[in-house]
Amino acid sequence: MTLQRTETFDPALRKLSVVVALGAIMTVLDATIVNVAVHVLGRDLHATLSTIQWVITGYTLALSMTIPLTGWATQRFGGRTVWLTALMLFIGGSVLCGLAWSAVSLIAFRVVQGIGGGLLMPVGQTMLARAAGPNRLGRVMAVVSIPAMLAPALGPVLGGALLDQLSWRWMFYCNVPVCAIALILAIRLLPPDGERQADSRLDTLGLALLSPGLALFVYGLAQVGEHGRVDSAGAFAGLVGGAGLLVAFAVHALRRADRALVDLRLFADRGFTSAVLAIFCYSIGMFGMFILIPLYDQSIRHAGTLDAGLLVAPIGVGAILTMPLAGRLADKLGARVPGVAGLLVALAGMVLFTQVGRDPSRWWLAAAAFVIGLGHGLITPSIMAAAYKTLPRAAIPAATTGANIMVRVGSALGAAILAIVLQLRLDAAGAHPATAYAGSFWWAFGFAALALIPASRLAPATSRTG
After folding, report:
1. Measured distance CA(388)–CA(202) in Å, rounded
2. Which residues are CB-neighbours of 440 under 8 A, at least 6 positions away?
3. Do residues 43 and 201 make contact, with C-beta atoms less than 8 angstroms apart?
4. Which residues have a Cβ under 8 Å from the Cβ of 123 and sit 6 or more positions away?
5. Could you give the CA distance from residue 464 to residue 196 in angstroms, rounded to a whole number?
6. Arithmetic mean of pLDDT, 380-390
7. Contact 150, 319 (CB under 8 A)
8. Contact of 44 with 166, CB cutoff 8 Å
């Protein structure tokens, strides 16, 4: 295997990376930061739990429905224009959420937030992938992966800390200064839109099938995760209706080919398909862990919300340590080496969680989470870089849309499956709760381990001369 030449990380690309990461971090954090505030919001807004859950669900569904638009919008209007518009929508939605006077108004404003948030991450990835080129993809994906890696670990911690010290409204107001800085920097530093297709027509039928189909399917999975079973009315209707619309979109997209909202022919590319399948399987297992770890700490160790959230924080710490290394290795050696190595390290940490007893040391749990984080930081940047490595520049917007959809579905699927597994094990006659959790951790391990199959098929580095 010959090492491929790495190109310098020039100042323009470095500035673009920082702006994209800074703008995206709060949007991703907002997907988890509100989770710890459900009871407080219900009390202060005089709403039932079933109503206030839509503060979370509305944001998630708006996020999911917007993602399919990103490829077309970037081609039609340009990445800079779409990114700035999305960031302003998110800032405006955050201010309105902080000013909300009722549960209904808060839910509506969360939808506005979700629309902006759903555009920011994939559009940012598209701009970075285009600017970086194949030889620097690993390093830029390491930067843009910071929000995605930190959000599940730090969201509950930040939410709990804000609730302990301030009003719930500050969970939304805290977005404003960070995103305002990102907006000012973006206006000054983002390059003008150079690649636009003014005659690009929106696939309206595809949008009518894919966006609601994705939203319904994610909603069904969320209902499964909430109730721990698939036979509830909401779960069944969401899963069946969403799956039907997604299948209909696939048939439509294959017929329409290059004019479809998402070009499914991208999956004929081995590198793209292997990377997307690897990150999909890994997302199922990893987001299952993000659900199980705090629940375990609260149920078995009787920890508070903030303490349970802090137990996940070492994952973020470990990821930050290895993430820069992942980008450099992916650019020099290809994605297979850091991707597979990261999976093996993360799986080792997951195995430690399968051995938890009835009263484990908190240091043991934190160490296990830290090991998972070390692997997590290697996996995401390298494998996401591999998804774009072999594709032409014109295909990057559609590829970003497809990859983000798979991550979104995989994350929701992991939460839903692990919730069912845990519930079944807890309901088993004579089963101790700690044993039920240990068995559920094995399921998360199994799904993450499946990612080794497509990850091992990622192409190694090849030499480049120019």
Report:
1. 23
2. 288, 292, 418, 421, 422, 425
3. no
4. 70, 73, 74, 79, 82, 83, 86, 400
5. 29
6. 77
7. yes
8. no
Q: Name the amino acid, one letter, at 35.
A: N
Taking the C-alpha atoms of residue 159 and residue 309, their distance in angstroms, rounded to an integer, is 9
* Residue closest to 92 by CA, chosen among 125, 68, 114: 114
- For residue 198, CA distances in Å to 25, 72, 105, 126 come to 30, 11, 36, 18
Both structure tokens of 294: 């705090």
- pLDDT category at 430 given cuts 50, 70, 90 is low
Instruction: Please name each of the domains of the chain with its CATH number.
Output: 11-190+261-455 (1.20.1250.20)
Q: What are phi and psi of 410, to 5 degrees?
A: -60, -40
The pLDDT, as a whole number, for residue 418 is 80
pTM of the model: 0.78
What token pair was written down for 283?
């997302």
Q: What angle do CA 405, 411, 415 make, to 5 degrees?
A: 145
Each residue's pLDDT tens digit, 343-364: 999 999 998 888 876 666 778 8
Asked whether the beta carbons of 82 and 119 are under 8 A apart, the reply is: yes
Distance between CA atoms of residues 414 and 418, nearest Å: 6
Neighbours of 441 (CB within 10 A): 27
DSSP codes, 277-294: HHHHHHHHHHHHHHHHHH
Q: Would you call 62 helix, strand, or coil by DSSP?
A: helix
What whole-number distance in Å separates Cα of residue 26 and Cα of residue 351? Answer: 31
What are the angstrom distances between the C-alpha of 56 and each of 60, 106, 289, 351, 396? 6, 10, 19, 31, 30
Q: Are 371 and 318 in contact (CB under 8 A)?
A: yes
Please tell me the total number of residues recorded for the chain in this structure: 466
